[in-house]
Amino acid sequence: MKLTLRVWRQRHADAEGHMSTYEVDGISPDMSFLEMLDTLNEELILKGEEPVAFDHDCREGICGACSLVINGDAHGPERTTTCQLHMRSFADGDTIDVEPWRAAAFPVVKDLVVDRSAFDRIIQAGGYISVPTGSAPEAHATPVPKPDADSAFEHAECIGCGACVAACPNGSAMLFTSAKVNHLNVLPQGAPERETRVLDMVAQMDSEGFGGCTLTGECATACPKGIPLPSIAAMNKEWLRATRKVRR
Amino acid sequence: MGLFGPSVSGMALATRTDRRPSLPRAVWDSTVGKKTVMAVSGLIMLLYLVAHMIGNLKIFFGPDDFNHYAHWLRTLGGPVMRWEWTLWVIRVVLVAAVVAHAVSAYQLSRRDLKARPSKYVHKKPRASYATRTMRWGGIILGLFIVWHILDLTTGTAHPGGFQHLHPYQNVIDTFSTWYGNVVYLTAVVALGLHVRHGFWSAAQTLGVGSAARDRALKTCANGLALLLTAGFVSVPVGVMTGVVS
Amino acid sequence: MNSYAEYTTGEPVADAKAPGGPIHERWDTRRFEAKLVNPANRRKHTVIVVGTGLAGGSAGATLAEQGYHVVQFCYQDSPRRAHSIAAQGGINAAKNYRNDGDSVHRLFYDTVKGGDFRARESNVHRLAQISVEIIDQCVAQGVPFAREYGGLLDTRSFGGVQVSRTFYARGQTGQQLLLGAYQALSRQIAAGNVEMHPRTEMLDLIVVDGRARGIVARDLVTGKVDTYFADAVVLASGGYGNVFYLSTNAMNSNATAVWRAHRRGAWFGNPCFTQIHPTCIPRTGDHQSKLTLMSESLRNDGRIWVPKAKGDTRPPGEIPEGERDYYLERIYPSFGNLVPRDIASRAAKNVCDEGRGVGPGGQGVYLDFADAIARMGRKAVEAKYGNLFDMYQRITDEDPYEVPMRIYPAVHYTMGGLWVDYDLQTTVPGLFAIGEANFSDHGANRLGASALMQGLADGYFVLPATINDYLARNPHHEEVGAGHPVVREAVAQTEDRLARLLAVDGDRTPDSFHRELGELMWEFCGMARTDSGLRKALERIPQIREEFWRRVKVPGTGEELNQSLEKANRVVDYLELAELMCLDALHRAESCGGHFREESQTPDGEAARKDEEFSYAAAWEFTGTGTAPVLHKEDLVFEYVHPTQRSYA
């Protein structure tokens, strides 16, 4: 396959960025999208040009590092992570636009690399259960109904890639935040901190400069792990409950 | 179990702040809270619109029925409430709802635009028509409400002679002008779209939405939107076709 | 032959920390004998933790909970992305919830035996004891393990054992456990007890007066090389499987932290012990950047086969039952498809070497679910393995519900690592190594679902107890700062190395060297090793290294995010570590676990151990790049599990 790539290049956070055009040839349909970029980068290095910087690590679709907007879609045309997107999803001769996640809360670091530390701070605000090592009761002391365990798992699958924010026209992090809130709040182990968790995480989300939710559903469509849109409604419910119940 | 659990109590463990803002403060300062304000105010307006629309249909029973209905509205709640008292209560509630809805929407929209300062070079059409037209639709509806009050409540901008407590004639006057029809029909279409996404969205904001209920909610939203549109449209259509004259 | 292979044998090394007495009392004894640090004094101690995987994340959180000031590093943009996240199958624990005869002693026994008697009994027993507490801890953290309808935890059996002791969260157990540790760590970051440095890579260890006192690290965004100081340094930087270029490790997983520590005096234990995982998706071409594992749990229900005839190119569906060779079931009737990883991998290699491999290049075997689907129904198979099947289909564009999967072995885990004593302390006082970074508890082969167990055992329970002893016994260090001559030298060396990489301006990419090295290692130090092959590799590696420093091309500068520079710097260390791996493999003229020397096999082709000669852990001391290292032997004493030739037939 022969492809034309238009890639966002930006030297550093404060630099002006622009789309640069590159031609790549000899692309196999079995390559992953990132392997296609590897090919481009190897050529660029040999030409003495700077390779395109992009985040990637596990290349198995689980670490959440990869983060490219491909032809306007977060993670590209398939519902998966960029690393699991294969070139067979494109046709010979295609022109492909590659851009970084765009959101005020995710500033560009370089080229296609963005800073997603805002997500870490949302988790730090309350996305945990306070259980110091060694203080845990026997695992079978509290049975968890299977539907609750399954629901917790479904939300816990979030890989923190940020595709939801990238896809949202408002740059909102509601789907990410709701995934963690729902994962922990549905479990009996998470109950003691149920109210403070949702209030603090939402407050942190707001203070990071993410936009609000207008329920366009773009986030859930882009989510490679299929975190469902109703997660947001469930978190809203938790939030409303918490504002009433929390001890002031 | 806990064979050597750390004996350091508390020292490094307290991580949360204990002081929390008051309820109204907490609500107004949060995006989720502001959305709640929008949802609640929106639902109040929606409730009013349903009543308003049903009341409008009385126009098809002739001038006496319709004008009598307008008169009755002012006596609502009597004898406890005096002339127009209830109506004023409703008006105050509605104005509060409109202001809360608009201010929240304005603040949230500004925030949303700031959260996505640079656009993608590769643009793609997104989301449903209703979702995308919420902001413009809201502005259209806001302007319409001003005109609508000046036209048929105060009569300030009414074509022809405005007659207090004779709404039947006033309505016919308005819909006898081309611009009256255009403005009204545009607003009603905007309303339909706005309600279609807004009702479903409010349900999500208030935490009623779930995967199981999603279809029911969407059907309900579509039904409401259709009902309101059809009901409101029927009046100018009635005037235009001469059914109401 | 170069002089590197002419290593010398130094003083034997012994683990001085494990107490004597009955094995099940040793951990209690050690914890009692270990000195404690007064809680009020803990905040005065700084501990550096490098890495945020299961071991590092859990250690950082736990040390901070205990009151220490933790300074933690990861090269990823967030501590949540460490490669532990990719572990699929599960985590072992001797809970015996199934009442199927499991016990701490059985887990201990299975692990020692599975490791082919090349692990330390005391350590393994402790691991089995702690396994039980790990599950409690993780459940309390909200890790959504699979549950039964009664609300209790579900378990499954996993490669190489006959009890059902593996706890799991669909095919994403590593992810869920890591997120649990990450959340605990996040809580401590918020509390100000952990100072987290993401996108920061350790490039050297600072050793002052024989003690580990800090690290040199590079901010990957600004390129700034900085120093950080502490009372103790914990390396939790993972394994070195990426020496092979193609492995199931994350692209950026690297050996720099452990190798730099090795160069500073930490001995390297059993570097040649590499685990080749039997169930990976075969490579599709030269563009392949990494390999993807399919969880071993698939072997519970899938059946592995190849055509009986050589060069049979018919599609699998057209090969009748009678012409298929379910070779694992044939050779190992009692364990069948569930034999340990090393055995399954080698068997796959053997059938492919015979010319009976399937798929492109004949480098693959079938993993067939047709029987499972017929027996359990498609729905049940989907519930159990759905996400794995989806992943397979995404990568290969083949539907495993219809066509058997194709799998082939790939480098997956390194049992070797920095040599540590019972306290997990390396030979550099104050330097600890936990998780896959140490040479650990798995001997010559790790059992499935034991990596997660070991990482969390080290991080949550072992290190936080043993590091107290070190800190309590070494209370008042002199202050070390950036102006200290040792520190200045370490920084200068690091900056010099980076500057040299940028200055070569040659005509080959860092990746091309990495690929060349990887292919060499796979061929000569992979699934089967020979004396002559290893000698060939030992001859070739210094040549590649020399060529690297002459021809590598790294564009850009050192004062910015420069992924080529990061890569090149990691390759520098692979090029040295690979040499040690080959030497270790050469010197160990026996087969054991994942280390298969063709010269040492039973008549029917099984690995033949030579206990009288090699019943020791090899700890290598660094003497200089390319110069012969010194071997220190730690004799392994087996008091509880009598070494036998492993038999899974």
From TrEMBL, chain A:
Query: Which controlled-vocabulary keywords does the entry list?
Result: Iron, Iron-sulfur, Metal-binding
Return the SUPFAM superfamilies for the record: 2Fe-2S ferredoxin-like, alpha-helical ferredoxin
Under Pfam families, the record lists: Fer2_3 (PF13085), Fer4_7 (PF12838)
Q: Where is the 2Fe-2S ferredoxin-type domain?
A: 1-102
Known cofactor(s): [3Fe-4S] cluster; [2Fe-2S] cluster
Q: Name one GO molecular function term.
A: metal ion binding
Domain 4Fe-4S ferredoxin-type, which positions? 149-179
Entry annotated with the keyword Iron:
yes
Q: Does the keyword Ion transport apply?
A: no
Please give the superkingdom of this protein's source.
Answer: Bacteria
InterPro entries to which the protein is assigned, alphabetical: 2Fe-2S_ferredoxin-like_sf, 2Fe-2S_ferredoxin-type, 2Fe2S_fd_BS, 4Fe4S_Fe-S-bd, 4Fe4S_Fe_S_CS, Beta-grasp_dom_sf, Helical_ferredxn, SDH/FRD_Iron-Sulfur
Which is a GO BP term held by this UniProt record? respiratory electron transport chain
Show the NCBIfam families listed in the entry. Answer: PRK07570.1
Q: What family does the database annotate?
A: Belongs to the succinate dehydrogenase/fumarate reductase iron-sulfur protein family.
Q: What is this protein called?
A: Succinate dehydrogenase
From TrEMBL, chain B:
Q: Which CDD domains match?
A: SQR_TypeB_2_TM
* A Gene Ontology cellular-component term: membrane
Record-linked InterPro entries: Cytochrome_b-558 (IPR011138), SQR/QFR_C/D (IPR034804)
Q: Does the keyword Membrane apply?
A: yes
Enumerate the transmembrane spans: 37-55, 85-108, 129-150, 178-195, 223-244
What keywords sit in the KW lines? Membrane, Transmembrane, Transmembrane helix
Q: Which domain of life is it from?
A: Bacteria
Q: Which Gene3D superfamilies match?
A: Fumarate reductase/succinate dehydrogenase, transmembrane subunit (1.20.1300.10)
- Tell me what this protein is called: Succinate dehydrogenase
Organism expressing this protein natively: Streptomyces longispororuber
Give the organism's phylogenetic lineage: Bacteria, Bacillati, Actinomycetota, Actinomycetes, Kitasatosporales
Automatic annotation (TrEMBL), chain C:
**GO cellular component annotations, sorted alphabetically?**
plasma membrane
Which residue intervals define the domain Fumarate reductase/succinate dehydrogenase flavoprotein-like C-terminal in the entry? 514-648
Tell me the enzyme class. Answer: oxidoreductase
Q: Which InterPro entries match?
A: FAD-dep_OxRdtase_2_FAD-bd, FAD/NAD-bd_sf, Fum_R/Succ_DH_flav-like_C_sf, Fum_Rdtase/Succ_DH_flav-like_C, SdhA/FrdA/AprA, Succ_DH/Fum_Rdt_flav_su, Succ_DH/fumarate_Rdtase_cat_sf
Q: Looking at the record's lineage, which domain of life comes first?
A: Bacteria
Cite the active-site annotation: R341
Q: Which residues form a coiled coil?
A: none
> Cofactor(s) for this protein?
FAD
Residue ranges for the region (Disordered) are 1-22
Q: What is its EC number?
A: 1.3.5.1
What keywords appear on the UniProt entry? Cell membrane, Electron transport, FAD, Flavoprotein, Membrane, Oxidoreductase, Transport
Which subcellular locations apply to this protein? Cell membrane
Q: What catalytic activity does the UniProt entry give for this protein?
A: a quinone + succinate = fumarate + a quinol
Instruction: Report the residue ranges that make up the FAD-dependent oxidoreductase 2 FAD-binding domain in this protein.
Output: 47-452
Q: How does it sit in the membrane?
A: Peripheral membrane protein
GO BP: anaerobic respiration
Instruction: Report the GO molecular function annotations.
Output: electron transfer activity; flavin adenine dinucleotide binding; steroid dehydrogenase activity, acting on the CH-CH group of donors; succinate dehydrogenase (quinone) activity
- Which PANTHER family does this chain map to? SUCCINATE DEHYDROGENASE 2 FLAVOPROTEIN SUBUNIT (PTHR11632), SUCCINATE DEHYDROGENASE FLAVOPROTEIN SUBUNIT (PTHR11632:SF53)
Family membership: Belongs to the FAD-dependent oxidoreductase 2 family. FRD/SDH subfamily.
The protein's name is succinate dehydrogenase
- Species source reads Streptomyces longispororuber
| Top-level taxonomy | Bacteria, Bacillati, Actinomycetota, Actinomycetes, Kitasatosporales
Protein's gene: sdhA
